[in-house]
Structure formats: C-alpha cells, structure tokens
Design a protein that fits this description.
By secondary structure, the chain is α+β, with helices and mostly antiparallel strands. The chain is about 35% helix and about 30% strand. It has six helices and nine strands. It has helices at about 10-20, 60-65, 115-130, 145-150, 175-185, 195-215, and strands at about 25-30, 35-40, 45, 55-60, 70-85, 95-105, 110, 155-160, 165-170. The chain has a five-stranded antiparallel β-sheet with strand order 2-1-5-6-9. Strands 3-4-8-7 form a four-stranded antiparallel β-sheet. β1 and β2 (about 35-40) form a beta hairpin. The longest helix is centred in the last third of the chain and has 20 residues, at about 195-215. It is elongated.
Length: about 220
C-alpha cells in the first residue's frame, strides 16, 4: 500500500482498535505457484500490548502459504465508502473513496497444539459473546474428541509484524467546510449514506485537531 504522510496512521492504540473492530482479515503470500490469498478471523494476542495477532488456517492452507517459512501479509479493512464530488460544491472535483486499512507483514510463528486450541477457543468465545446464551467450543454437544479432531484440521499461527503500513484516508486534505459537507452526506439517508465511515471521520478529525492544539 503506497503511503502518504498526510494519511499515515502510526498510533499503536489506534491500530489495535482498527484490528479489533475489523477482525475478518485477508492473508496473502507469494508462493512457488504465485500469489495466494486466504480469509480468516484474526484477533490481537491478548498476552501482548503491541500489534501481535493470532489466528488459524485450515489445512492445507498452511502449505500453500508456506507458514513459518516465508513472509505473510495480513490486511485489515476498516470503514470505507464512496465520496461523491457533489459534496464538494460548485468546484472542479472527481469521486474518491475514503477508507482505513492496516497491513501487517512478517513471518508467522506456528503454534503448538495446546496454543492452537486456546486460540480456537478464544475465537469462538469472542464471536459468540454477542449472544445472550453463547455456545462455547467445549460446550455440549461438542466433546473433547470432536474439538481435538477439529484442531488437527487447522494450523494456529502468531504474527508479530516486522513491517506495519496503516492508512487513514478520510478527507483530511479538504477544507473544514467541505469536510462538514461530506459528513452531512454520509450521515444522511441518501444513496451514499455511511454512518460508520462518518463516525471514523469525526474521530480522526477530533484527534487531528487535538494534536494540532498540543503541538
């Protein structure tokens, strides 16, 4: 991802927030037969406070990606959406797309059986937590034999990135008047309404203004 200093994200807490809120990631590597891409849920490693993440892949995705042997790229896509030039007013303009994205790159560590089981258990618990009666991985009708058989069909990985590229392109280069017009459009009920993207833009703008005041 080409970086632009005006749109760069570097704050680790903000990067962790984006990853935590958008756990469905794309995993990419360059294998002997060309580029490979897979899609899996990814969580921050709860034992770390950096950008280390954990997940699993199904066999034989581990062989396709050469996990543990070569570099893996994980892409997390945050809020994004179309920005119509109509919101810029009576001035020359073209459409654009606002977005937030985080790229983590590194050689993943292969987890042990018990570590993988812990990650699988945490993944299930994490996504079931929205339910009033969540169903855990070890909960009946699942039994230990079933869970361990499930684990054998997966490979757990931990990635501590050696390279991080993160971008928050949210109209920061526009005037306050145009920014407010864009936000009004996104928060409206028109065809390009996007409340989640508007919330991210307001968060970004508040952080930018706070940084400017403290500079």
């Amino acid at each position: 991802m080409r970086q632009n200093p005006s749109f760069a994200m570097t704050d680790v807490a903000e990067l962790r927030r984006v990853i935590a809120r958008n756990p469905w990631a794309t995993l990419m590597s360059d294998g002997p037969d060309g580029l490979i891409a897979s899609h899996y849920p990814v969580l921050l490693d709860d034992a770390r406070d950096d950008l280390t993440v954990v997940t699993h892949v199904g066999r034989p995705d581990d062989l396709l990606h050469g996990l543990g042997e070569r570099e893996l790229l994980m892409v997390f896509q945050g809020p994004h959406g179309y920005i119509t030039p109509r919101w810029y007013g009576d001035t020359p303009a073209v459409p654009t797309w606002n977005y937030v994205a985080v790229h983590l790159r590194g050689v993943p560590e292969i987890l042990s059986t018990e570590e993988n089981l812990a990650v699988l258990d945490r993944l299930v618990a994490h996504f079931e937590s929205a339910e009033p009666n969540p169903r855990g991985m070890w909960q009946a009708p699942n039994d230990e034999a079933f869970v361990r058989r499930l684990e054998r069909g997966t490979v757990g990985i931990r990635l501590t990135p050696t390279s991080v590229t993160a971008k928050r392109k949210l109209s920061q280069n526009r005037t306050p008047e145009i920014m407010e017009a864009i936000l009004t459009g996104l928060e409206g009920d028109g065809p390009y309404g996007n409340a989640e993207l508007a919330t991210e833009m307001r968060r970004s703008e508040a952080a930018r203004r706070a940084a400017a005041e403290n500079a």
